[in-house]
Amino acid sequence: IGTLKLGGNHPIRVQSMTTTDTMDTEKSVAQSIRMIDAGCELVRLTAPSIKEAENLGNIRAALNEKGYDAPLVADIHFTPNAAEVAARKVEKVRVNPGNYADKKKFEEIDYTDESYQAELERIEEKFTPLVLLCKSKGTAMRIGTNHGSLSDRILSRYGDTPEGMVESAMEFLRICRKLNFHELVISMKASNTLVMVQAYRLLVAEMKKEGMNYPLHLGVTEAGDGEDGRIKSAVGIGALLEDGLGDTVRVSLTEEPEAEIPVAQKLIHQFDGVAEYTVAAFEDELPYSPYAYERRDTHAVLNIGEKSSPIVFADLSQAESVKPANFFGFGYNYSSSLDKWTMQDLAADYVFVGDQHIDFEVPGLLGVVSNFYTWKNVYQDKKHCYPLYTTIPADGFAHAQLNFLEWDATDLDVDALRDLKQVVIVLKVPINGYVQFARRFFIALQKLNITIPVVLCHTTSTEDHESFQLQQSTKMGALFIDGFGDGLWLTTTRRIPVQLINTTSFGILQATRTRISKTEYISCPSCGRTLFDLQETTAKIRKHTAHLKGLKIGIMGCIVNGPGEMADADYGYVGTRPGHIHLYKEKTVVRKNVPEAEAVDALIDLIKEYGDWVEVKA
Fold first, then answer.
1. CA 575 – CA 580 distance, rounded (Å)
2. Mean pLDDT in the chain?
């Protein structure tokens, strides 16, 4: 891509996208420089029409004059003629198969094999000029499928599925290969991390079948802002990096584009310098599918396993002493005047106290876990207190209802776990490779039909709060997406606030859609097409709706992905023209051209109208 090498053994590259109007050369150049100085290796700019595509040449020239040669990427939707202009001006063009040759009308069409083939021939005719132009000019191309903008044709035959996303890209890839053009990068973006991960894995499997090995651009689209956006991005992107997939990364945050760069760098750098390790070989067919989510079957032990949502652990074992005030960090408040505990939505289910002694009544819904000998001497006769063992006891487990057992994931001799009914495994790995060793352990359990519940426990050693969130989200997210884990227990060798650990735990479960504890915001990262201030609007909508647990609200700066992403959201807020908003119920527009000043109130009214509003608790 220009002078930048991508794929093969080259480093994973970091990129982002400008939010300026591409016709404003001065602002676009200034923002591009801020991005490049922050470490951005590819700069993407929107080119919605020919005039913006033409102006990319002026932006390229201005950057060159200032000594910046980072490749520029033209982002194209709906306008093949703009793509052909851009291919002459910059080093790379991105096309979206869902809207490059098709117009989306949300129509379901019953295609015959002959009529479908005719559509493929029409697409080839429309796409070929761009491919030949890129080939002659040495311009690279990204074929970027978006879950939210699949064509009606793909949706009619494959549905709103990872398979549909993959086929959408493969149709374009086959045309490129037929024309002997291979300077290609492929992406499979979605706001749903499960769909996104499954689509990339399926794409690679399909490419391997057809003898293709093109590099991948990774991203969770519309990830949102703040902590949620970082966790969601790390869950999706990190899971694929753990698989060994990915050659370039963009973390899509509803923030300034230069703020995305250090997050992407930290996400990638957790894999730097990792020592090689060997996971026990497995030759048979996998007992689970990497391409479709299905939670592993387990039996229930109290509120852990079977159909219960994954549980969350807090850890106070390293505290100097345990007091009621300590519990605030993981979701419990104690009122001394009322002598009463209250719970927040993000309240942990169990707290590990190690060898600490608690001399006060704990919340009734909170389980207290201690090391076995401390439990035996201090907690054995107290309600909701449970032991943690480090080995299987010769004389049996002492608690009649629930016992925790630490297990090293590298130990695959799991037959001893077959008949344990009142036991939950706490899975640890003392070396690198947590995800791979954990997967291998779960395969061993499944081969023997062992249904014991498992709590995933992973330790980081970073002092940086953001790195802690990214690393834990990567490891835990990958396994929950695979359907593994009945709980999580995040630990650290450094001082990370209990509250941050707790919100990260619930954020991971929310991002993997295994336990919903808050409102989810599917908000795009802004670009030159955006028709309102996304950061300000997202903050305003969050302020009024953050208490609507389980609701998904899409906030889209323009129409490009809006209607499609509304299919995954309960409600949508989409810019249509300056100062005006369309409001959606799922993918159906229900209120058009609402003045922006009234749009947030109108969204709240819409949520009330459909019965999804609840009043804030006093």
1. 6
2. 91
C-alpha dist (Å) from residue 244 to 72, 241, 409: 26, 5, 20
> How much helix, strand and coil, in percent to the nearest 5, is found in the chain?
40, 20, 40
d(CA 247, CA 245): 7
Q: What is the DSSP string of 448-504?
A: TT----EEEEEEE----HHHHHHHHHHHHHHHHHTT--SEEEEEESS---HHHHHHH
Which residue blocks in 149-225 are alpha helix, DSSP H?
Answer: 152-158, 162-178, 193-209
Let me know how many helices (H) and strands (E) the chain has, helices first. 17, 23
Count Cα atoms within 13 angstroms, Cβ side, for 293.
20
Other C-beta atoms within 10 Å of 196: how many?
28
Exposed e or buried b per residue across 557-580, where buried means at least 16 C-beta atoms within 10 angstroms of its C-beta:
bbbbbbbbbbbbbbbbbbbbeeee
Contact indicator for 95, 76 with CB cutoff of 8 Å: yes
Least reliable range by pLDDT among 161-165, 181-185, 481-485, 538-542: 538-542
DSSP labels, 434-446? HHHHHHHHHHHHH
d(CA 331, CA 111): 53
Q: Note whether 551 and 567 are within 8 A (CB).
A: no
Report the alpha-carbon distance of residue 527 to residue 44 in Å, rounded.
9
Q: Give me the pLDDT at residue 103, please.
A: 64
The whole-number pLDDT of residue 469 equals 97
Rounded Cα gap, residues 252 and 361, in angstroms: 45
Three-class HEC string of 306-360: CCCCCEEEEECCCCCCCCHHHHHHHCEEEECCCCEEEECCCCCCEEEEECCCCCC
Q: Residue 156: pLDDT band by 50, 70, 90 thresholds? A: confident
Q: How far apart are CA 1 and CA 71, in angstroms?
A: 6
Q: Which secondary-structure segment (H or E) carries 522?
A: strand 520-523
Q: Is the pLDDT of residue 78 over 90?
A: no
Please state the φ and ψ torsions of residue 175, each to the nearest 5 degrees.
-65, -45
Res. 565: pLDDT tops 60: no
Give mean pLDDT, residues 205-213: 97
Listed range (153-157, 195-199, 314-318, 327-331) with the worst mean pLDDT: 153-157
Instruction: Give the C-alpha separation, 189 to 146, whole Å.
Output: 5
Taking the C-alpha atoms of residue 449 and residue 563, their distance in angstroms, rounded to an integer, is 43
| pLDDT, tens only, 408-451 | 999 999 999 999 999 999 999 988 899 999 999 999 999 999 99
